[in-house]
Amino acid sequence: MELFADPITVNCRKVVAGLKLLGSDYTLTKVDYFKGEQKSDAFKAINPNAALPALRDGDLVLWESNAILQYAADKGGKTQFYPTDTAKRADVNRWLLWEASTWFPSCYVYLVENCVKPLLGGAPDPAVLAGEEERFHKLAGILDDRLSRRPWLAGDGPTIADIAVAAPMHLHAWQQLPLAPHPNLARWMTQRVEQLPCWKATHVGDGFKLGEAA
Ligand SMILES: N[C@@H](CCC(=O)N[C@@H](CS)C(=O)NCC(=O)O)C(=O)O
Fold first, then answer.
1. Residue 212, pLDDT score
2. Per-residue confidence at 136, pLDDT binned at 50, 70, 90?
3. Which residues are CB-neighbours of 141 under 8 A, at least 6 positions away?
4. 3-class secondary structure per residue, the chain
């Protein structure tokens, strides 16, 4: 499998960490996000959305990070991380869909305002951040409630759902995500997800610096 990605971005880090969790065999072809290489004609022939990541496996060309995780898990027969039991799989699928449609867009506001804008010489817009607060706390509250009763989002161990939902908050300190009212969510992130070898190996630090976590 050939993965086209820039491991500093949310959805690429998600897939790189997920493939490591799954033990998948793949090669990484770097597409430089900040150089805008995802917008090149060559890359748009692979993903017409001009967005990262994408995967090629023989004749299959796949985009959408969560679809890539589902495919890699099924291909490798990794039922521990993506169960085949109908109800358990539906539970994981629910979190994958919710992450892409609902959770990522909310966390992304904090990433753009508090990380990307200052890095490019701008400043966060307090009105934009204030406007996101209510939605963020509603969504974080859903996760916090779920994680008050279980160590991982779905099942007794980590699944691709944990990797997917953690990715949009991967820079939570630099993003200044308001996690204080959500202790179960914060604990899951810092004491569960961030302790996984696949997460440590794909560490992204402030300033979008790559390198193994301390
Ligand atoms: N739903 C897509 C979202 C992909 C996406 O938005 N990727 C970002 C990087 S995390 C991107 O490349 N955006 C294009 C751009 O900003 O030019 C997925 O999960 O793969």
1. 60
2. very high
3. 181, 182
4. CEEEECCCCHHHHHHHHHHHHHCCCCEEEECCCCCCHHHCHHHHCCCCCCCCCEEEECCEEEECHHHHHHHHHHHHCCCCCCCCCHHHHHHHHHHHHHHHHHHHHHHHHHHHHHHHHHHCCCCCCHHHHHHHHHHHHHHHHHHHHHHCCCCCCCCCCCCHHHHHHHHHHCCHHHHCCCCCCCHHHHHHHHHHHHHCHHHHCCCEEHHHEECCCC
- In the chain, what are the domain boundaries? 2-76, 86-196
Q: Indicate which residue's Cα is closest to atom 11 of ligand 1.
A: 51
Look over the chain and give the mean of its residue pLDDT values, rounded to a whole number: 96
What's the gap in Å between 10 CA and the centre of ligand 1? 8
Provide the CATH number for the domain formed by 86-196 in this structure. Answer: 1.20.1050.10
CA 149 / ligand 1 centre spacing (Å) = 32
Residues having CB closer than 6 A to ligand 1 are 9-11, 38, 51-52, 64-66, 100
CATH 3.90.1720.10 fits 2-76, yes or no: no
116 alpha carbon – ligand 1 mean position (Å): 14
